[in-house]
Design goal:
Layout: H1 22-44, H2 47-54, H3 58-64, H4 68-93, H5 105-119, H6 121-132, H7 137-158, H8 162-181, H9 191-197, H10 216-222
Helix pairs in contact: 1-2, 1-4, 1-6, 4-5, 4-6, 4-7, 5-8
Length: 224
């Protein structure tokens, strides 16, 4: 009976699964958390959803972050750091010699920020979620620190006085609300606000005219 010699047969070897370093996994989880928390907020976003986005099990997330709040704060800090880095790049690229006459450094920073608001909505919405979560004392303290750090960064880049910094950040908050609602203007007299105040087809009462209560007209006629 013929036998088959298997000693010299090539064997198929499976390549070992490449292990991703914990630092890379952590970075990927923070990036996933930015996008998930931006939509669901702190309380409305399951950690399991963030884990699935990266392809890991939920228990692994908690081997890298103490709890859900710490993952949320890591995402918030990345959001603020990205804005700070954006301002630094815009300042480095700004050249007053070649800039248009009406564009100063603050405007260059603002233009760079507006571009990010248009192209990466997750970072915008996560800012709003961060402020909304400030009922939590730990989150409030960390968000305050992030905001103060951003103010310091702009102060160092511009060497501006506090009044000018205040004006810049007030306008930034205006831009945040404007972008969140998907409008181009928040002025009281702008077209969309006027349209909301006076919907098409609705009767508009002349300015200063007072509406009479029901029956007042009949009482007035009977008094004559």
């Amino acid at each position: 009976m013929a036998t088959t010699d298997l000693t010299n047969q090539p064997t198929e070897q499976k390549s070992p699964r490449q292990r991703i370093p914990a630092a890379e996994r952590r970075d990927a989880l923070i990036d996933a958390a930015v996008h998930e928390f931006a939509h669901g907020g702190l309380h409305g976003t399951p950690v399991d959803r963030i884990a699935r986005r990266v392809g890991v099990a939920q228990p692994y997330v908690f081997s890298l972050f103490a709890n859900k709040r710490e993952l949320f704060l890591a995402a918030v800090e990345r959001c603020f750091d990205r804005v700070g880095d954006l301002f630094s790049r815009a300042a480095a690229e700004f050249d007053p010699a070649t800039a248009p006459p009406d564009v100063d450094l603050f405007m260059a920073l603002g233009n760079a920020y507006v571009e990010v608001l248009d192209t990466d909505r997750a970072y915008l919405m996560l800012q709003h979620q961060a402020y909304a979560a400030c009922d939590d004392e730990v989150i409030r303290a960390r968000v305050r620190a992030c905001y103060a750090k951003l103010v310091s960064r702009v102060e160092q880049l511009t060497q501006a006085e506090p009044e000018r910094l205040d004006e810049f950040f007030r306008y930034g908050m205006w831009l945040n609300v404007q972008a969140a609602m998907g409008v181009e203007d928040l002025s009281a007299g702008c077209e969309w606000i006027q349209a909301e105040q006076h919907p098409a087809g609705a009767e508009q009462q002349p300015a200063g005219a007072e509406q009479q209560p029901a029956g007042a007209e009949q009482q007035s006629a009977g008094a004559q």
